[in-house]
Amino acid sequence: MEDITITLTTKPSASLRASVFSAHSPSTSRNLSDVLVVFLNGLVLSRRAWSPAISHLLSSFSDNNQHPPTIFTYDRYGQGDSDHDPADDPNSIPYSHDAHDIVFDLHQLLTQFTSSSPHLPNLESARLVFVCNSIGCPLARLYAHAHADQTQISAYLFLDSMIANTDFVSIFPDPDDAGFDPGSLPKGVSPQELRYTRSQFRKFFHPTVPNPEHFDRRKLAEMLPFSDRPSLPLIGAPGDEKPSEKAPLLTVVGHDWDEFAEQCEKGTMAVPKQVINTFMNPTWSRYNDGLLRLVHSPGNSNTVKVASGCGHFIQKDDPEFVAKEIKHLLDNL
């Protein structure tokens, strides 16, 4: 992977940092020369967190005497090695640019990158594969609809998508609500634990919580109120005036319930495992089931895959698993 700096023509006073593996020749078994694999980060981990998975992916191509497609990772404005967004209003910080702004910048970034690459067609003709973790998954969904007429997203890998339509606090019952029935709680969960859990999730995950990117998440639930709609755009051959009836590939991966609950209990939040397994994990599972319905095609899996032994950051906990899932999608292209 080569580290590069890209300055958007739309924002010439700041730069984005990216890492690229450039495909120099078509695959010996399948032609992936027009494919661009784009990695979309969550809020916590930068582009560097994808490096182990990408290393495994490149090794799998080498072991099979195949040439990989072009691979692209980047840090959003205010994240990792990238500069802060020059369009951020100092008077509005920590709430500045939102998901729509990020999607706009991503499109400009990919347009410039593909136009300058000697090994890729222009963005409209390239086949995009989005590999996403956490909030990167709703960003991919928003991008797909904002630029459906200008891009072809042939495949998606959602790794423990953020639950975009919640404030996270309301996932857990409020023990101070007038209608709350303590007798409804399962064994091992107390009102005191619920109260503490709600306070911790409000502190760490509520949409009003600031982040180093100045990414304003307060209206994300309005942008994507449902996990199962709108459906991801269909794709067609380059130059088609109307997309053919061909659905993109989609793989949805969820975390290991027990590992995630263990990490919540032993990590900074110190939230009891039983509370996570009673309320958070089932809610997340239902959300993932909805994501599967974003694509209606017999060629896609109808079950959510579970990354055994992984918490929320699947690319960190099991990079080899992530590489295998990417390779599977690319083979199916």
Automatic annotation (TrEMBL):
Pfam families: Abhydrolase_6. Gene3D superfamilies: alpha/beta hydrolase (3.40.50.1820). InterPro entries: AB_hydrolase_1, AB_hydrolase_fold. Residues 37-324 form the AB hydrolase-1 domain. This is AB hydrolase-1 domain-containing protein. The lineage of its organism: Eukaryota, Fungi, Dikarya, Ascomycota, Pezizomycotina.
